[in-house]
Amino acid sequence: MAYPIKGTSLYDEIENDIIVQPDWETSTDREIDFRRNYSRKYYDYAVSKVVNEVELHRESIRENKNRLKILKLKTKSVLAGAMMSISK
Question: Are 43 and 1 in contact (CB under 8 A)?
Fold first, then answer.
């Protein structure tokens, strides 16, 4: 997942929407929290959906496909999409 690093265009874009600015001596840029259009869980599920779809594609083009793995990845992708719908 992308996160805002001070000095980048993403940071500049969300700077006024920061709701948690961590202490730089004990934390990292990844801990910055900011207002989003959807809940944080929504974005977590979106990342999960994309990761599973990419892995599904990779497995489906392999010469020796693992059909059980394909089924599991598709199931995870569909579930992540469903969770996105209810996590807005």
Answer: yes
